[in-house]
Amino acid sequence: MSTAPTGRTGAPSVSVVICVYTEDRWGDILAAVASVRDQSYPALETLLVVDHNPALLRRLAKAYGDDAWDTSQVPEAMEEGAEPHRIRVLANAGRRGLSAGRNTGIAASSGEVVAFLDDDAVAERDWLLHFAEGYADPRVMAVGGRTQPVWASRRRPAWFPEEFDWIVGCTYRGLPPGKVAVRNVLGGNASFRRSALEAVGGFASGIGRDGHRLPLGGEETELCIRLTRALPDAVLLIDDRSVIHHRVPEVRERFRYFGTRAYAEGLSKALVASSVGARAGLESERRYTTRVLPAGVARGVRDALLGRPGGAGRAGAIVAGVFAAAGGYALGSLRARRGGGRFAVAALGPATELPACEGAEV
User: Fold this and answer.
1) List of E strands, 158-316
2) What domains does the chain contain, in order, with CATH numbers?
3) Are the beta carbons of 53 and 21 closer than 8 angstroms?
4) This prediction's pTM
5) Which of these, 19, 24, 150, 195, is most buried using a 10 Å CB contact count?
């Protein structure tokens, strides 16, 4: 039986959107859906949005389909009149990429709150409960959580600095602990009020990952900055009790990926800055580069002097990551000035207005 968020009798309904794109993650996708199904605070529905992959769409439709209902909810919840958890399979109705996929999920969802979970992550049992608690305050428009890496090699590479865990989509050293207000939440473990998403038109297209280009990011940063500009009283939170475990494949444990992803992040930040201005787009990054990273280098050098494994590698990786990101930012800024960094914000309408190919119709 679900527990109502502390201090609120009318707990918000939550839709969970999981964007998927490859059959290579089939087992991960099933595990992600199962972790949503097992939440202590039940989701209203899970929407699997398939990014232009007909084979995966058909396979998921067969596995779940539009008539897939989770009947495993406890009897008490059913006696209270709660509908069972519905699993829906949709096709991305927009251009290829994560932003359009998320917008498809938002428009097709029904919950007062829309939560996002990566397709290669599993959520802890109270993930949605702590999200829901955050919305007891009507000023709160977004709540994010903590993402922990699950390394394919079973342990963190000795050279890989925690300050750069964002490289693999995880919470990094330097973020404040506890339940705190932030500039932006991290997209793979986040939730938003539907009204806030509708107010800003959803995620921008032309930024973030699309499955073909460099591993870009930044779409949630850009969205959150637009959100707080449109709603000046909005509060955005991270609650580190809302935990997910994100799988890190072996290829992402390599330094080559580290450098490529850092470079791509620089490109992304340039796109964000061109949209919302450098002051807002880089506010958090300035503190990160002037305080968090120098402290990380100092720790690495100290560990190296004390003979601890990986210290020199971590210090070197931080320096290399900064230079790679700076190079990407410089090139991205140049492209933006020449008009190559434009992207658009799609207006979100009611779910019925956004065509989506659901599983039963495949």
Assistant:
1) 179-181, 189-193, 204-205, 235-248
2) 14-254 (3.90.550.10)
3) yes
4) 0.85
5) 19
